[in-house]
Amino acid sequence: MGRLTALIPGLIFFFVLTGCGSGRDSTDIMAGEEIDFFAMQERAEEFEPQIGTHGGEFILSTISDPKSFNPITSTETSTSEFTAHMYEGLTSINRVTLLPEPGLAESWEISDDGLTYIFSLREGLLWSDDTPITAYDVEFTFNDLIYNPDVRPNSARDLFTIGGVIIEVTALDDQTVKCVLPYPFAPFLRAMAQEILPKHIHEPVVKAGKFPSSLGIQTRPRDMVVSGPFMLDSYTSSQRVILKRNPNYWKKDSEGNQLPYLERIVYEIVADQNAQLMNFKRGMYDYLGARGEDYPGLKREEKNGQFTVYRLGPARGSSFLFFNQNSGIDEQTGEPYVDETKLSWFSNTNFRRAVAHAIDKESMISIVMNGLGYPQWSPMTPSEGFFFNPEVTEYSYDKQRALEILEQEGFSDKNGDGFLQDADGNTLEFSFVTNSGNNERIRIAEIIRRDLQDLGMRVHFQQLEFNSLIQKISNPPFDWDAVLLGLTGGDEPHFGRNVWHSTGSLHMWHPGQQTPATEWQARIDSIFDAAVQIIDTDERKKLYDQWQQIASDKLPLIYTVLSERIICLTNRFGNINPSVNGGLVHNLEYIYVK
């Protein structure tokens, strides 16, 4: 939920398909095709992997170069897409059941009051450079990296700060870690999937004050010491990232063979979805995340037997429009980051409500997604399960209602030029940007631009490379007006704290905010501070329902549509286990070339 996405990838938790607001039967999105998602999930939970063979490679494409290989400072999938294979935590999340299970730690004990956790690490764990993994690496990761104020950005610090207080993490010996929480922390075991980094490698870098810039794209692969199933082999800018098998990975199959089976994962960097589709059809890739518009043609070609097309339910995550509400002052120039006139528009809730009414989501689903999509109204989606609130404010496509709201706020075409002016005569004009390469998102952005232009707004649309766009929205001088982006999703709301809390490192509509700017933002802060300390899930849900209602009512993020998750995979691999929770390659360490 708390990572920016170039392609809105995400592993899916399927709860219920009805309630998406589309009015379509979940088993009949394509005429004549029925998909029993519940049966698919049941089969996934019962799946037992076969014994595979070592060797071979898995080839897929990605839209963007990696921004870095630093899992602590990253806030975007252009980093985590790779580091997820390279580093592990004390726990891991089973991508089929979505439950925490042992990772680097083989077991743990919890005190009666729920505030003290004692983790026991597995025997014989090794970093990829043959150095033992110990509890002191865990202590270092938390105390010297996550809780280090000089390490920025740092979304993990948001996650592991409870009521303004940090967790005490202490290595008792090489194999044992003690964590003392200041307050109850409901998702703690899930959160302990946090990546652990090697102390012997990074401690000197921290002491030199250089960790935030370490593990960058210029770092030599041999200097990236990891614990996960794969390690960096090479990176060629704008061409490819190659990960190779980590010979020291701890996990083994049921017969004691070391995992992973695959020798390499190859990411081809192709900054255009149409090119990715064409290359997949030519047999250049093994894996393709397809769009709704591609689906009919891919289903026809599936009959040739080279690949299989999987539909895995509605995507989790989100795609949304947001406006720059940063009221700060540029220290270099003394000027406000956002023009005062524009800030008065963007910070006006009724202005954002008018925009929400002006967006034609059904056209997005029909034109862009070939009918394989769902309107979204709030931060969580039906595919994200228990905490999803279906009773939020919805904004029907209603141009007349949008104009009425704007007129009430003083906007009208005062000079007859076809564009709206505010009460002071300023033309309603702003820039609008999204990331290049994602053709589906670009087409959605073009529909938004058209809808707002039809309403009388002068909108200047442009595209930027994903990492460049993230730098632009996250750093001074915050020179942007409106952006269309996406976030990964998840079934645990607290993991979106870095977005929704006013102090969060990914608080996009007002980056760097230190205190709540509005009463509703203060209420969201209090919800996230309180809900994480409540163990009873029903009581937590009541609070997170309030958050989703506030988000849909105040619209700091104006949501668009969810796509159907469509994955194509060549038929040369074993141990493929489709899951509506985990996607298609959630068990990559068990996948092998047949």
CATH architecture of the domain at 77-213: Alpha-Beta Complex
Remind me, CATH topology of the domain at 77-213? Answer: Dipeptide-binding Protein, domain 1
Low-confidence stretches: 7-32
The share of residues in helices is 25-40%
Strand fraction? 15-25%
The assigned structural class equals alpha+beta
Terminal CA distance reads: 35 Å
CATH class of the domain at 77-213: Alpha Beta
CATH superfamily of the domain at 77-213: Dipeptide-binding Protein, Domain 1
In words, what does this structure look like?
- This protein has a domain at 77-213: Alpha-Beta Complex (Dipeptide-binding Protein, domain 1), CATH 3.90.76.10.
- The longest helix has 18 residues, at 537-554.
- It is α+β, with helices and mostly antiparallel strands.
- The chain starts with a strand and ends with a strand.
- The chain is built from 17 helices and 24 strands.
Briefly characterize the structure.
This protein is α+β, with helices and mostly antiparallel strands. 27% of the residues lie in helices and 20% in strands.
Short key terms for the protein model shown above:
594 residues; Dipeptide-binding Protein, domain 1; four-stranded mixed β-sheet; globular; alpha+beta
